[in-house]
């Protein structure tokens, strides 16, 4: 079996709409303006790359939605993302809010999201909480931890056996003093408190600069607590840059830890690979194609590591040989092999070029331009 046959990566619906920085939006004529258009665009990415069969959805931005519409475009609904950060009531938090009425409303939204997941046939609910505080002394950190445990347990109690909840962490932003779920340890403890179907979600952009992300991945694998990834790249903070654009070796090292785990244990790591990027400046569909292509490359490279040899070098503390073993896989040009794989699937050898030749972008730009230009782009 070709290693690429077992690699798929989920696209974010929000990556196809006009988004921006907090200073404003630069509007693209071709951006998707409805959930159906997001699926149409995601369908293009999958049609040309063959590795993006599902689309993650944000409950507040994308519903109501009929899953049959997704099927029209050759993709399916993937993970469901509740939204507990935009409504006015969440000014002081959601599950961690000192007001019991707001906590109850946040829980209701989580349970509604669960119901949506049931209806769309989605397995994963991806939870990211913006909860936190901006000034020392303004929030009771331990009390809020208890409220989170309470809320997440209540949500877990309602999961179907096939559903999972994935708990994302992020060190800061929008809160700048303390964030309730700030790192993988906090996610891990809360997931354990919630129940066995709760796992940790690693967003590669949600770490401090020097953190060793692949070590976090290795530890979560060892604990059977790794549920999935939000892939993106970053130079400074949660930049949401294109996967691998700044540090491709980072993603390679993550894939390597997963391969090593599978090889050693003979178990299949049950991990959801997802993209979490919003392209403010690059054309969105093209950047998603670029992302999917590069993810495949890094996955294929990681699969070339000679794990048996590596284990031998590690056992003998052959440092140079062990390191070279990893690096030579990383340096291998896997593009010819991926082109062969594409040919065998009836896909174009160069998805980006083929998409450009299709004329889709110009067509949707014409159709959507007027609607997009009406959208609000200012910061204040
Ligand atoms: C957050 C986080 C979440 C995503 C939102 C839009 O920073 O990464 O996963 O849903 O952004
Ligand atoms: Mn994320
Ligand atoms: Mn993020």
Helix content: 40-55%
Distinct ligand kinds: beta-L-rhamnopyranose, manganese (II) ion
What is the overall silhouette?
globular
- Number of alpha- plus pi-helical segments: 14
Kindly report the average pLDDT value.
Answer: 97
* Distance between the amino and carboxyl termini: 54 Å
Radius of gyration equals 21 Å
By helix and strand content, what is the structural category? alpha/beta
Largest sheet: 5 strands, parallel
* Uncertain parts: none
Task: Spell the H/E element sequence.
Answer: EHEHHEHEEHEEHEHEHEHHHHHH
Description:
- With 380 residues, this protein is of the alpha/beta class.
- Helices cover 46% and strands 11% of the residues.
- It has 14 helices and 10 strands.
- It has helices spanning 35-49, 59-62, 67-72, 100-120, 141-157, 184-194, 213-222, 248-265, 284-303, 307-315, 319-331, 335-344, 351-358, 360-373, and strands at residues 11-12, 54-58, 76-81, 124-127, 132-133, 164-168, 178-179, 198-203, 226-231, 272-275.
- A 5-stranded parallel β-sheet has the order 4-6-8-9-10. Strands 1-2-3 form a 3-stranded parallel β-sheet. Strands 5-7 form a two-stranded antiparallel sheet.
- Helix 1 (35-49) links the parallel strand 1 and strand 2 (54-58).
- Helix 1 (35-49) packs across helix 13 (351-358), helix 8 (248-265) packs across helix 9 and helix 10 runs antiparallel to helix 11.
- The longest helix is centred in the N-terminal third of the chain and has 21 residues, at 100-120.
- The protein starts with 10 loop residues before the first strand and ends in a 7-residue tail after the last helix.
- The model has no long low-confidence stretch (mean pLDDT 97).
- One manganese (II) ion (MN) binds next to loops.
């Amino acid at each position: 079996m070709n290693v690429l046959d077992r690699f798929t990566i989920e696209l974010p619906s929000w990556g196809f709409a006009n988004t921006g920085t907090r200073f404003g939006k630069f509007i693209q004529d071709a951006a998707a303006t409805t959930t159906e258009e997001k699926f149409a665009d995601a369908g293009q990415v999958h049609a040309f790359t063959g590795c993006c069969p599902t689309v993650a959805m944000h409950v507040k931005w994308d519903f109501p939605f009929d899953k049959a519409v997704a099927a029209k475009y050759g993709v399916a609904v993937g993970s469901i993302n509740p939204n507990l950060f935009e409504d006015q009531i969440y000014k002081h938090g959601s599950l961690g809010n000192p007001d019991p009425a707001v906590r109850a409303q946040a829980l209701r939204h989580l349970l509604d999201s669960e119901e949506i997941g049931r209806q769309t046939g989605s397995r994963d609910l991806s939870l990211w909480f913006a909860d936190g505080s901006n000034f020392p002394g303004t929030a009771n950190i331990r009390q809020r931890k208890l409220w989170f445990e309470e809320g997440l347990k209540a949500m877990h109690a309602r999961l179907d056996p096939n559903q999972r909840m994935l708990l994302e962490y992020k060190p800061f932003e929008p809160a700048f003093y303390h964030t309730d779920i700030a790192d993988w340890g906090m996610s891990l403890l809360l997931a354990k408190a919630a129940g066995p179907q709760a796992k940790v979600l690693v967003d590669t952009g949600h770490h401090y600069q020097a953190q060793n992300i692949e070590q976090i991945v290795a530890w979560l694998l060892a604990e059977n607590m790794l549920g999935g990834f939000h892939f993106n790249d970053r130079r400074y903070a949660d930049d949401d840059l294109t996967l691998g654009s700044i540090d491709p070796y980072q993603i390679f090292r993550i894939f390597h830890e997963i391969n090593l785990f599978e090889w050693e244990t003979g178990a299949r790591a049950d991990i959801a690979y997802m993209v979490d990027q919003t392209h403010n400046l690059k054309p969105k569909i093209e950047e998603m194609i670029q992302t999917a292509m590069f993810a495949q490359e890094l996955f294929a490279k990681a699969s070339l590591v000679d794990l048996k040899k590596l284990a031998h070098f590690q056992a003998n503390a052959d440092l140079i040989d062990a390191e070279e073993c990893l690096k030579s896989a990383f340096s291998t040009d896997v593009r010819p092999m991926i082109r062969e794989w594409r040919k065998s699937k009836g896909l174009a050898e160069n998805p980006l070029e083929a998409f450009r030749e299709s004329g889709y972008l110009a067509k949707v730009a014409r159709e959507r331009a007027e609607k997009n230009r009406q959208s609000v782009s200012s910061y204040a």
